[in-house]
Amino acid sequence: MKRGYIIELFSSFQGEGAYVGRRQIFVRFAGCPLSCFYCDTCYARDSQPEFCTVLGNTDFSRKKIIENPISSHLVMKFVEELHTPDVHSICYTGGEPLLSAEFVKEIAMKAKDMHFKNFIETSGCSAILFAPLAEYFDFASIDIKLRRHRAVEDYDRLYENELECVKISVDCGIETIVKVVVLKDTPAEEIEKICSDLSDFDIKFVLQPVTAPRHLPDVAPSAKELLTLSEVAGRFLHDVMVIPQVHKFMGIP
Ligand code: SF4
């Protein structure tokens, strides 16, 4: 049985993208190789945190602290405890779940056996790590980073991997959501290029206006910019949405 590093386990509403508002059980894996400047889960970038926090089902202030690394068996025990009739799926998130690919696979297999649907949120940083996982997932939300997110030094390699992950996901019949976080002054040409590269794939495409970090209050795009970027995307893709991070308004994790 595998053990791995999880930073948080909790049940909440999906706060981003095409499945916003769906109740999910979130498994937040530790570690991320990227460094997006707007990251709102910096606490999840440590790859070997000492503890995993399990939040109460309807009372987030109720917490259990579990020592890492945690076994897949114990993860499933908490998943069962957090399960409620409205749960849509288990959300494998991070950090970056691909860094824990073998551990993710074991949990996803157990979850399938228990008839859960599996939903992965990834930056698409490694197609090699994503490919063997694809058959266990029903939904994949794959980010495409912009150069100005300052996520990595080798942006072209990251972009290639992201596109390859989208291809693998669509080819495996996974319901695929591609999300791009957009900023003030995001060039329409950059969104045009991404959407053109995605135009052969049957995906849901989400433009997510950045939630401005406190130290950078002026980075969010205007409504006018979002309307323009949405129109550009719509020229190439049939299912385009503009959705901010809703969980921030709701004050939930
Ligand atoms: S990929 Fe996600 S977790 Fe990693 S730095 Fe970027 S926003 Fe943060």
Outline the structure in words.
The structure is a single chain. The chain is α/β, with parallel strands linked by helices and 253 residues long. It has one domain: TIM Barrel, CATH 3.20.20.70. The protein is built from seven helices and twelve strands. It has helices spanning 72-82, 101-113, 127-130, 155-171, 188-198, 223-234, 246-250, and strands spanning 3-4, 6-13, 23-29, 51-55, 63-67, 70-71, 87-93, 118-122, 139-143, 175-182, 204-209, 240-242. It has a ten-stranded mixed beta sheet with strand order 5-4-2-3-7-8-9-10-11-12, with helices on one face. α1 (72-82) packs across α2 (101-113) and α5 packs parallel to α6. The structure holds iron/sulfur cluster.
Largest sheet: 10 strands, mixed
Overall SS class: alpha/beta
The succession of helices and strands, N to C, reads EEEEEEHEHEHEHEHEHEH
The CATH topology assignment is TIM Barrel
Morphology: globular
Q: Which ligands appear in the coordinates?
A: iron/sulfur cluster
**Top CATH class:** Alpha Beta
Give the end-to-end Cα distance, rounded to a whole number of Å: 29 Å
Question: What is the level-2 CATH architecture name?
Answer: Alpha-Beta Barrel
Q: What ranges have pLDDT less than 50 throughout 5 or more consecutive residues?
A: none
CATH homology group: Aldolase class I
For this structure, the quaternary state is: single chain
- Strand content range: 15-25%
List its traits:
single chain; 253 residues; TIM Barrel; 10-stranded mixed sheet; two-stranded antiparallel sheet; 29% helix; 25% strand; binds iron/sulfur cluster
